[in-house]
Amino acid sequence: MEALKEAIRRDGRGIGTDIVKVDCFLNHRIDTALVTAMGEALHQAFAEDKPDLILTVEASGIALAFAAAQAFGNIPLVFTKKGSHRNTADDHYVAPIISYTKGDSYNVQVSKQYLQPGMRVLIVDDFLANGGAAAGLRSILEQAGCELVGIGIGVEKGFQSGGGQLRAEGIKVVSLAIVDGIDNGRIILRD
Amino acid sequence: MEALKEAIRRDGRGIGTDIVKVDCFLNHRIDTALVTAMGEALHQAFAEDKPDLILTVEASGIALAFAAAQAFGNIPLVFTKKGSHRNTADDHYVAPIISYTKGDSYNVQVSKQYLQPGMRVLIVDDFLANGGAAAGLRSILEQAGCELVGIGIGVEKGFQSGGGQLRAEGIKVVSLAIVDGIDNGRIILRD
Predict the structure, then answer these.
(1) In 3-state terms, what secondary structure has residue B80?
(2) Is there a contact between B109 and B97 (Cβ–Cβ < 8 Å)?
(3) Which alpha helices (H) appear in B12-113, and where do they start and end?
(4) Which residue among A87, A98, B84, B141 is least packed, with the fewest CB closer than 10 Å?
(5) Is residue B174 within 8 angstroms of chain A, CB to CB?
(6) Of residues B28, B35, B113, nearest to A78 (C-beta)
(7) Residues of B in Cβ contact (< 8 Å) with A23
(8) pLDDT tens-place string over residues A5-41
(9) What is the tally of helices (H) and strands (E) in chain B?
(10) Is B109 in the A-facing interface, judged by CB distances under 8 Å?
(11) Where are the alpha helices (DSSP H) in chain A?
(12) ipTM of this predicted complex?
């Protein structure tokens, strides 16, 4: 998506070899017009997949997921909550999300009543790196008996393994921008 | 706001004497059309106050704040991040948020570059109870030299002290629905 790539070129910052800092428009300060347009772009990419619901992770995925939910004609959005330290709960689906970047893991949960068996669900998140968040969300969808129709991402770190692994499994993954690397603070975008 | 009150009457649940559970449309599952309309209602309420930016707290305030930012003609949105355990940081404004409900406190932070002195800022949040989040956000705006133009809320617990205290200070607070109490699981809404 050209407008996102422009924003990354203009305002993004690469740190070290693997940190893509875009918090001035995507995940701390939000450029409302840009994120709205990103939601519309995800709708275009997944319109034929007809999701019933969008699932994301709190917190930084929420704005993009909400914009996408609007673009799909105001379908509902569910965001996982950080929380339970238990691995099971009577009224929630629980799954771990492993952060390879931070080297830790935390549980997320979704109230069972909001994911009905057979629902067609699109996962949306601001970032895809090693796929830890996507794996946790897929576990929740499997527990709930929902159908994953695809994964829509703002910025994918193409030099990390998450996107490649998911696509190798046959999952439809669409990222609005893919970063191929960082060179001396400069973010290298895939054409 | 009538549509919100209807949703609270239909789907909200009161628990004990003070828990207002609206997570099936506001803060876990999101009713996209309703939250979009709530953002428009906040725009109507604060249009004359001409905010430059909306400030909210991650995570459950983000969708409503984003919808409001859209309604104000796509002004930017900043959400505080949970984080620093330190009370100061060179590049962030930091303030504690005291949760009277949970009896604990945590720090939130905003990168200094996103709040410029003199900016007119509207605080938006999904809930207002004892005013702990509002106090933390006001502290951040004071540190930054920004002007608070008002506080827009989804659901106010009118039986707790936050809203009354803020209004007594002369701050413009608009809540789209006010809950006056809970009676045997039934949520009592103010007319």
Answers:
(1) strand
(2) no
(3) 32-46, 62-71
(4) A87
(5) no
(6) B28
(7) 111
(8) 999 999 999 999 999 999 999 999 999 999 999 999 9
(9) 5, 11
(10) no
(11) 2-11, 32-46, 62-71, 132-144, 162-168
(12) 0.96
- Is the entire prediction scored with pTM above 0.95? yes
- Which residues from B are below 8 Å from A102, CB to CB? none
Contact A66 B69 (CB under 8 A): no
- Measured CA to CA in angstroms, residue A74 lies from A155, B49, B109 at distances of 23, 29, 31
> Helix crossing, B62-71 with B32-46: angle to 10°?
60
Helix (H, G, I), strand (E, B) or coil at A79: strand
B29, β-bridge pairs? A78
Q: Identify the residue whose tokens are 């809930």.
A: B127
User: Does B76 contact A30 at a Cβ distance shorter than 8 Å?
Assistant: yes
The 10s digit of each residue's pLDDT in B14-30 is: 999 999 999 999 999 99
| Residues 6+ positions from B54 with CB-CB distance below 8 Å | B65, B68, B69, B72, B75, B76, B77, B78, B121, B122, B123, B124
Reported as type and span, the H/E element at residue A111 is strand A104-111
| Residue of B182, B140, B150, B186 lying closest to B42 (CA atoms) | B150
Question: Using CB atoms within 10 A of its CB, is residue A161 exposed (0-12), middle (13-18) or buried (19+)?
Answer: middle
Q: For chain A, say whether B105 makes contact (Cβ under 8 Å).
A: no
